[in-house]
Write a structure and sequence with these properties.
about 280 residues, mainly alpha
Length: about 280
């Protein structure tokens, strides 16, 4: 009995030690960013390294706020993230509903294409898409960035939602169809409210992906007024020098939406993952 108890205590101790190590490994980069953002430029480059700032300063945050049209950069990022997330939820939701409810000959092919897109790096499509958008005269437009990002996220959102859609009872839809509802009305009035946890989770994923995007915005946006927040932070990295204090401060500001979204919607997120996995 004592042997079993000792073994249980030992395993529990090992588990908590591993969790503590993983926690420190995960949190340390954010902690280091915070400390760097509070240091002056001289102190950042001092050797030996001083981990805690001798005199904390908000100068880096002020410098970031005064960099160009900072408010405009945030608005541009919000527009791209919100538009991309809403479009993806709308299209991926309907796509997942069709693939989970209807049987047709090309269904396996469509699903396989969706799966294949997740195996390819996004950089594969940069050159052909840029040539296409240039010929269409759609370069240097925020909505072009929205379209590119949405197209890349639709397969992921569809795959995530299929399992969740399968968990919704068909009887509810059949009752609505018998009452005279069409497929579209049934989807928007019956299926969407029941699938809101899944749709919210896709919204979170896509919002963060669009918010954190750098390369698509750098590739398609040329005007300074249309820069996104991540591109503005990226522009702090010069050819011969890097202002690490401002980069750290800007990165922490850019991380705020991610922290807030997961903080407010973590229960919805976990519910959807559980619903998708059980199928």
């Amino acid at each position: 009995m004592n042997g079993k108890k000792s073994k249980h205590i030992f395993l529990l101790t090992v588990k908590y030690i591993l969790l503590a190590v993983f926690f420190l490994y995960t949190v340390f980069p954010f902690f280091w960013l915070l400390l760097t953002s509070l240091k002056g430029s001289r102190e950042i480059y001092e050797f030996p390294v001083h981990y805690l700032p001798r005199k904390a300063t908000l100068e880096n945050y002020r410098e970031v706020m005064q960099m160009g049209d900072f408010g405009k950069y945030i608005c541009n990022s919000l527009f791209i993230a919100l538009a991309g997330a809403c479009l993806t939820v709308l299209i991926a939701g309907m796509s997942a509903y069709i693939l989970s409810r209807m049987e047709f000959r090309s269904k396996p092919v469509i699903f396989m294409i969706y799966m294949m897109t997740q195996m390819l790096p996004s950089a594969v499509g940069f050159a052909p898409l840029y040539i296409l958008m240039t010929r269409l005269g759609m370069v240097d437009r925020l909505f072009t960035v929205v379209l590119i990002l949405t197209g890349g996220q639709i397969p992921f959102g569809t795959i995530l939602l299929i399992g969740f859609m399968k968990g919704i009872p068909r009887a509810l839809e059949e009752s609505a169809l018998l009452d005279g509802c069409g497929r579209m009305k049934t989807y928007f009035t019956i299926v969407m409210p029941l699938a809101r946890a899944g749709l919210f989770s896709v919204f979170i994923f896509v919002f963060l992906a669009c918010w954190n995007d750098v390369y698509t915005s750098v590739l398609y946006i040329n005007s300074a007024a249309k820069k996104t927040l991540t591109v503005a932070i990226y522009s702090m990295i010069g050819k011969y020098d890097i202002n690490w204090g401002s980069v750290a401060a800007g990165t922490l500001i850019a991380m705020a939406p991610a922290i807030l979204l997961f903080g407010f919607m973590k229960e919805v997120f976990v519910e959807n993952i559980a619903g998708a996995v059980k199928e």
